[in-house]
Model the fold of this input.
Amino acid sequence: MKLLMNTSPYRLEQGYELGFGPIVFDTMAEVILAFRQPWQDILFSYTNWDRELDPHRENLIEDSVRGFHTDVIYDPNQAISLRVKEVLLHHYAPGSDPRANQALMDQMLARFREVPLDELDEELLRKIGTAVHGMNSFYTLEDRDEATQTFINSRLVETTNSTWLYPFERPVDLKNQLWYRANTKEEILQSFELTHWMFACVIVNRSTRVEDYSYLLDYTEEHGDEHDGMVLYISSKSPELFKDAVLPQLQVLLGDKLEIIK
Done:
């Protein structure tokens, strides 16, 4: 595991030494807490995306109809299947009442999965793909379950529309970013569970705007010739403070696994 301090931003290249997924939750929560001082807040970012501007939307719709056709879409409550049955009924029998045609809709769905995709009507496939993708994707916080919405909204500190903190180009389909407070280890772990453990967060002085952060942390997965695995990008407004206050804590936390390259 390497901490590259000769780059901007710094790179904590973990690979898969700490594991992958839930197994790293506890350690990554401790890593984040190492950056925070008592007078500071940890603000996590939740991004709302514009469904209509998604540059990959057409491909996702096609993938969705293929996945549903082969019955590999996760649908534990059969809500997606019910919606597709309604699409099939309205396509083949416009004006029919779904409540009075349950058996017919079951037959239509079974027949849909028996017929090869390339023999089905393109308009129908797009309707089904759009319906499945719409129910099986998260673009905004409102698409999430009630527990996730409550967790974020009850901790919401700031919403940014035009502010962009990262060194890469702002995505065209980004609506806004919600910044919510999670200062304790328990809250950080809950954030991982409810949203995603590949996170972005800032450490800011309390009542300070996100763009005036002390640290910006961006945790992601990369694959390349020089590095393969998890990376924590660390942007610091005060490199000396990082060296004096944060680095010693990371060395204790990660121990002999950590190699520092200055």
User: Anything to note?
Assistant: Residues 55-135 form one domain. Strands lie at 2-4, 10-15, 40-49, 156-160, 174-181, 200-205, 215-223, 228-236, 259-261. Residues 18 and 24 are 6 Å apart (CA to CA).
